[in-house]
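Per reviewer request, we include the raw input and output of the structure prediction for the construct analysed in the revised manuscript.
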Amino acid sequence: MPLPAPQARTHLHTRAVVYRGYLREDGLWDIEAEMSDTKTYPLDRSERGDMPPGTPIHGMAIRATVDDHMTIREIATASDHTPFAECQQGVDPMQQMVGVTMGPGWRQAIEKALGGIRGCTHLRELLFNMATAAYQTVPVYRERLRRQSGAPVAETAGPPYHVGKCIAWDFDGAVVQRHYPQFAGWKPLTRKV
């Protein structure tokens, strides 16, 4: 369903964000993110001078190379378009993410390593959703290969990580009943103190 028809308006700003996932020949995975901000009107910026419509104010990219467990093995960052020359100082701190696993606690790890003035706001924003792109890339493709090979379904002690994290994946919902009936109605064990 498309959005309802809008009121009369003027387009002023576009932020474009793209994530891509790749399987490398060495068995690792590259997750890439790109972000750009543009205006539909000319800008005159004290730091960059006259900027015609469509000139990127921000143009940034990240490549995180992860293993099968979604632990970052390498990270590369580019900030080709920034409002200030000082923004380039946000590139080097990204190396602190090497060794961090994309999974539970991901956003807290980003904030701990790169929060506030320790890093670039826009690169942090790109990192936040890289874990989702990695999840859509790595386990989904590995499951496809497993099914193609005819390997048996691996038994797990608990539900997949994404179950119970979305309205569609409600433990009491129809999607879980169809795809993971063994976890329909599942409740996590609580520890007694």
